[in-house]
Design brief:
The chain is α/β, with parallel strands linked by helices. It has nine helices and ten strands. A hairpin with a 2-residue loop joins β5 and β6. The protein binds adenosine-5'-triphosphate and magnesium ion.
Amino acid sequence: MDIGELHRKMQKRREIIKSNMKKIKYKIAVMSGKGGVGKTTVAINLAISLAKSKINAGKDNKVAILDADIDCPNVNKFMGIEKKLSIKNEKIIPIEKYGISVVSFASLQEREDQPIIWRGPMLSKAIMELLEQVEWGELDYLIIDLPPGTSDASLTIMQELVPDGIIIVTTPQDVAVVDAKKSANMAKELDIHVLGIIENMSGEIFGSGGGEKAATDVGIRFLGRLKLDAEIARCAEKKKPFVLEQSKSAEEFKNIVNTIVKEVLK
Ligand SMILES: Nc1ncnc2c1ncn2[C@@H]1O[C@H](COP(=O)(O)OP(=O)(O)OP(=O)(O)O)[C@@H](O)[C@H]1O
Ligand SMILES: [Mg+2]
């Protein structure tokens, strides 16, 4: 394939993605600089909370989640999804669970423990193929669970999908906070609106306040804090999103979701 043909193919792909994305009202990506801070936990529970909130003239919101962590896709694992994605009329059909549509690269893998060792451009290509080939349909919200860091996958999502907002998750410790600021600055440089920062795993062990400080330092909204909570960990073990059970954390998360929705609709 010559360069011209490659360029035309890429252009065509971008046009299809653009037209797919036009059918989605709000695209929100969940990001963090540091790994393991709770992005996937936030993304899944946010998607489910949004699906259950009837802000749309009394109708349930239509919500999908895209697991854009191609190396270590965890959304399926956290939601207890073992099914593979099906294909209809040459389009990939998302998997339905807990009232939301789920698209994860894990649903295309043969085995869960199969390593994906790809270089940056291949990761970007895989994400673009998902954006292009999935039958997204009309959606109120698409939540994107990003891998940690500010590398290829995050860049592709920001440039090709162009989220309406980014949510940054951090733990209260200094190392995570520095990385959270990096993520906020990346989004700002790319002209993507940062909805705010969530402090996760706050409490006696990791302390508290780092997320709020990071938000103040970079001039963005503090969305709230979620405690380090055995109940959240227990729900993850059961493969059940914690907002589906009653707990103090589920109540706290409701307030965070309300703040996010206000910021999105502003
Ligand atoms: N507030 C919390 N209380 C207790 N456990 C939590 C909390 N938030 C997340 N966890 C647990 O911490 C682990 C890491 O969370 P999660 O996978 O959501 O982080 P991540 O940022 O998506 O990680 P990665 O960078 O690997 O994608 C999971 O086992 C999750 O169940
Ligand atoms: Mg994750």
